[in-house]
Amino acid sequence: MQHNIYLYIMVSALVSFAVRAVPLTLIRKKIENPFLKSFLFYVPYVTLSVMTFPAIVETTAVPIAGVLALIAGIIAARKGVSMFLVAVICCVIVFAAEMLI
Q1: Of all helices (H) and strands (E), which one includes residue 59?
Q2: Dihedral sign, Cα of residue 6, residue 8, residue 9, residue 14
Q3: pTM of the predicted model, to two decimals?
Q4: d(Cα 43, Cα 75) in Å, to the nearest integer?
Q5: pLDDT digit string (tens) for 23-50?
Q6: How far is the CA of 35 from the CAs of 12, 60, 69, 70, in angstroms?
Q7: Domain range list for the chain
Q8: What percent of the chain shows pLDDT beyond 90?
Q9: Are 77 and 69 in contact (CB under 8 A)?
Q10: Which residues cross the membrane (predicted)?
Q11: Are 97 and 69 in contact (CB under 8 A)?
Q12: Residue 37 to residue 32: CA distance in whole angstroms
């Protein structure tokens, strides 16, 4: 079976363009619906979370180390620790957990 890479690239480009162009052409006035505004506000955060959280757990050699680092990172971030320090804490926890487990 012969695959045409240019066809795949063209379809991918058209779908990417359609996802961006259709809302611009169909929605011309300001969105007033509070539910829809709230939904659209949180879409970027949800998308980032869906991509990030599984990667945190799956990239470690021992998945429990990733879970421990995730929990520690959430706790540290909620306490107002800087992002750099949260990353350091998570790295140290993953390193220690992988050494012990």
Answers
A1: none
A2: positive
A3: 0.63
A4: 23
A5: 888 888 888 999 989 998 999 999 999 9
A6: 31, 38, 34, 30
A7: 33-100
A8: 73
A9: no
A10: 6-27, 63-96
A11: yes
A12: 7
